[in-house]
Automatic annotation (TrEMBL):
SUPFAM superfamilies: MOP-like, P-loop containing nucleoside triphosphate hydrolases. It comes from the Bacteria. The lineage of its organism: Bacteria, Pseudomonadati, Pseudomonadota, Alphaproteobacteria, Hyphomicrobiales. InterPro entries: AAA+_ATPase, ABC_SmlMolc_Importer, ABC_transporter-like_ATP-bd, ABC_transporter-like_CS, Mo/tungstate-bd_C_term_dom, P-loop_NTPase, Transp-assoc_OB_typ2. This is Fe3+/spermidine/putrescine ABC transporter ATP-binding protein. Belongs to the ABC transporter superfamily. Keywords: ATP-binding, Nucleotide-binding, Transport. PROSITE patterns: ABC_TRANSPORTER_1, ABC_TRANSPORTER_2. It is found in: Cell inner membrane. Residues 7-237 form the ABC transporter domain.
Amino acid sequence: MSKAAEIELAAVSKVYGTTTAVHAISLKVPAGRYCCLLGPSGCGKSTTLRMIAGHEDITDGDIMLANKVVNGLPPARRGTAMMFQSYALFPHLDLVDNVAFSLKMQGVDKEKRRAEATEMLELMQLEPYADRRPAQLSGGQQQRVALARALITKPQALLLDEPLSALDPFLKIKMRAELKKLQTSLGMTFVHVTHSQEEAMALADLIVIMNDGRIEQAASPRDIFQKPATPFVARFMGSHNVISGRIVEQADKQTTIEVAGGHRFSALGAAEVGAETADIAVRTDHARLKDADEPGFGFTGVVANVEDLGATVKLSITGAGIEDFTILLSDADYFAKPVKSGDAVPLSWAPADAIVLGHVKS
Ligand SMILES: Nc1ncnc2c1ncn2[C@@H]1O[C@H](COP(=O)(O)OP(=O)(O)OP(=O)(O)O)[C@@H](O)[C@H]1O
């Protein structure tokens, strides 16, 4: 395989008519990393990937691959390869010819390209099916053919648009592990578009969370989960509750807000200079049903819903001016002292489990 390339986006925008799909985003994906572009439908992640691939013109800004501006280059000359959601396999060609297709386009002679395609099929453990057509394969096998076809050009970066979305849940998890293993063994830069938080957490070294054409946060999965930068990230990842209110106190490293209804909440960190309101995030899996008189931050609410998820139980709680506060308890903790809808419960969390959130500048 050829060397992995760093990918850099400098103030890249995409405008379609009156819609700005991507607003001047800047991002560096270091060589050899697994990057996931994560966000809800319509946030601009596929457009960003297609601009990196060269399947979409950029309206403004620069895209660099291995420190070279590639803005005007066609896809085949960028050193990237793209794997599509639908796999885009040719139904009338056998696997060898499917995988060898881009070498044929490059003018590689038949014997050489078939030998290389067979080698790639071996790498993907598809050699026994070499003379089959795509329709004679399972979804997971088709996905591996699509990967083999993208990798045969020896790209410096592989771009994957929702590569697991066509698979059933069981196969999705299996193929996810295979993708990660492949990326690690090839040492290649991967950029993978997904709308699944779990998929991004499982795969990425770098998660880029997009919302409305902007990057909300680009960080390691650990940081995204433990230290969401914005209310959007905290809500989208589901790791934190977000409480919004008026700032009533700013101490050294602590901010206190008051929510409608008068209850006050404190959290570690400073609010933005000059701000009158702030958002506080509280870990869903660290908030507890407390024993009476136990110190700590919290409030008393009413259980609105209980969902038994197996290893954890999710409680939705309303109260103190907060409409929907989620807590995740271990099954052992919940069943040691079960509660039901309508019960009044005192909640608490440690000061370190509440943080002040920032905002994306528009
Ligand atoms: N060819 C196009 N013409 C006009 N608008 C477009 C075009 N392609 C995308 N858009 C718009 O740009 C925005 C971003 O679209 P994009 O496909 O990048 O989002 P996405 O995050 O990949 O969403 P999904 O997960 O649904 O694929 C959307 O508002 C979309 O409607």
